[in-house]
Amino acid sequence: MPEESLTLRKILDGLKNLRKSFDGEIAIQVMLLRLGSFSNAEESDAEALAEALKSIEPDHVHLYTVYRRPRLSIVKPIPKEEIERFASILTREGFKTEIYT
Asked: Which end of the chain is more exposed for a tag (fewer CB within 10 A), N or C?
């Protein structure tokens, strides 16, 4: 059960504060997947992620997909071509993006 008091806004604010106080490199890891008919690897998802990342200013963005059989059979990996399209949007927005499959 997800913690109800932990919101995306709180996570983003925490990452922004980390960026301000931490001199080292920050990498944001993103898991792209299909869950039934839902996918978080659409062009609009990449654009929304890029917008959120602008305020965090990460040094790297690492993109992953499912590579081991998940517990839920409706969870599926994203094809490499789709991950590359997703990455190209982030790269175009100025992020150093790496794909791990």
From this structure: N
